[in-house]
Amino acid sequence: MPGTVNVAVIYYSSTGTIARIADAMATAATEAGAHVRLRKVRELAPQAAIDSNPAWAANADATKDLPEAEPDDMVWADAVIFGSPTRYGNVSAQLKQFIDTLGGLWAEGRLADKVYSGFTASSTAHGGQESTLLALYNTVHHFGGILVAPGYTDPSKFVDGNPYGTSHVSGQGDLPVGDQTLQATKVQAERVVRVARALKDGGLTGGA
Fold first, then answer.
1. What pLDDT, on a 0 to 100 scale, did the predictor assign at position 3?
2. Distance CA 143, CA 106 (A)
């Protein structure tokens, strides 16, 4: 009987697009048989900035009761799926701040030999999705993690076209997450769970 796989979906979202994908990613991982923790990272922006954007304020309110990510979530997880909107072709400051708190666990080798993957969103089709995920994945190399991107491992990936991770073009918030993005989410989450389970059953993962 395959063993239990723990998956942490850890994300930052301002106006809600990444939050929607994160929720779908957590659901798909759960349906694939994983134990899942869905966690947002701490907001760094001032309240005035949040209040100035109705979508940002609405997402902050909608997720106010969701637990914030803690280093223990990384220890617990066999696989971590990070989510961030693209910020000038890089990950958001909020997600980077969380990653920067993990130095102690990294020094102890407790972030190694886990599966990692990522997802993102941008306003335009060429707004930095690939560079954001590649920048995120540089961190995985430093962790000694095992990168599991979706690749072109499913026919649907030739439709959405992004082998690096699930991505969504949100426009100015007027392009909601739809079936194509949700299918990409399902493919990625199932692949992460499948590979993490195989590695764990084989005795490799479990740096905790």
1. 77
2. 6
